[in-house]
């Protein structure tokens, strides 16, 4: 058997589709069994585009002349399955005649794996986006419940260490006649009104460096000087209190429901911690909170009440007037003042 015959036998036996083409018209001169198995209707003398209708034969010839190789991929259906092959055409010599060798490798499995990888990547990406979105929602919810620094501690360590903060200024607010207002209005109206008002309070408090701690019905508590200490904590809650009153005065002029707040201001130490295990919430309690709540009870509608020594610490930023005497939460007697909202200049 000649070498050429042996080579032909080898070509017929391998699992790669091999064909020989003449280089002038790209007609098939030979193909092995694998190629024949893929393209059952093929006959010698047929042109390349008879088997691959989408191929640009002019481009094949140009590539062979300029680069010495043409590569492409083609997909076709064998019975019920789609098959994809990678084809490579290289020039060669058969005796003294120039021919082109077409080698086709079945890459269907590779394509299937690539498709699976793409699908998996898309699924991972979609899940990652979903996890990120849920994480952002959880973070937003937690930041609505606790200061950012406390949230960072909770995120890092899973717990929040109870801490005592000194020189914290506390603003405690509620609405006079709240129960009567609730009875007179639809529940949806009350919730909508409070949401509107508390959102404005949050915005104002943030402007002055205050951190809202909690709301319980008509009770609204915000603080300054924690978790990060501030030399201006008293000034901050005083400015916020004045702005709260001004906001409500202006709002009542154009809204059907009148809201008249009472505000107590105090300063001192507080304890901040996450309270609860399952339905936990960041809470602040201690002498300053108790004092602010007690002084709030001494305030009339649209009044801001503080101890006289508290007012001395914000100086001339706001005018005050005597409000008699009262007692702090521990029973200590103090002189009270009303912080007037109509005069004075806000520090921000």
TrEMBL record:
Residues 169-296 form the Guanylate cyclase domain. One of its GO terms (cellular component) is guanylate cyclase complex, soluble. One of its GO terms (biological process) is cGMP-mediated signaling. Pfam families: Guanylate_cyc. Coiled coil: none annotated. PROSITE patterns: GUANYLATE_CYCLASE_2. InterPro entries: A/G_cyclase, Nucleotide_cyclase. SMART domains: CYCc (SM00044). This is Adenylate/guanylate cyclase domain-containing protein.
């Amino acid at each position: 058997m000649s070498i050429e015959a042996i080579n032909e036998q080898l070509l017929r036996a391998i699992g790669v589709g091999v064909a020989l083409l003449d280089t002038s018209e790209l007609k098939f001169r030979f193909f092995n069994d694998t190629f024949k198995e893929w393209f059952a209707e093929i006959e010698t003398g047929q042109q390349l585009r008879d088997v691959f209708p989408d191929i640009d034969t002019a481009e094949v010839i140009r590539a062979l002349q300029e680069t010495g190789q043409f590569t492409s991929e083609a997909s076709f259906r064998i019975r019920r399955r789609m098959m994809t092959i990678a084809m490579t055409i290289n020039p060669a010599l058969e005796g003294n005649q120039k021919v082109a060798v077409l080698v086709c490798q079945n890459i269907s499995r590779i394509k299937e794996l690539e498709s699976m990888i793409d699908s998996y990547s898309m699924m991972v990406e979609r899940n990652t986006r979903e996890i990120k979105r849920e994480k952002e929602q959880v973070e937003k919810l937690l930041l609505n419940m606790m200061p950012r620094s406390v949230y960072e501690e909770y995120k890092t360590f899973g717990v929040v260490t109870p801490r005592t903060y000194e020189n914290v200024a506390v603003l405690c607010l509620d609405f006079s006649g709240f129960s009567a207002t609730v009875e007179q209005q639809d529940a949806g109206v009350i919730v909508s009104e409070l949401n509107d008002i508390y959102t404005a309070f949050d915005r104002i408090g943030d402007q002055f460096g205050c951190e809202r701690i909690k709301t319980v019905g008509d009770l609204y508590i915000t603080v300054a000087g924690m978790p990060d200490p501030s030399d201006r904590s008293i000034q901050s809650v005083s400015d916020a209190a004045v702005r709260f009153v001004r906001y409500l005065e202006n709002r009542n002029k154009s809204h059907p429901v009148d809201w008249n707040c009472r505000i107590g201001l105090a300063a001192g130490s507080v304890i901040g911690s996450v309270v609860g295990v399952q339905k936990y919430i960041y809470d602040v309690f201690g002498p300053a909170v108790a004092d602010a709540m007690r002084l709030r009870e001494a305030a009339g509608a649209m009044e801001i009440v503080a101890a006289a020594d508290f007012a001395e610490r914000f100086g001339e930023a706001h005018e005050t007037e005597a409000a008699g005497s009262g007692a702090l939460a521990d029973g200590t007697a103090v002189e009270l003042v009303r912080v007037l909202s109509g005069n004075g200049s806000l520090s921000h």
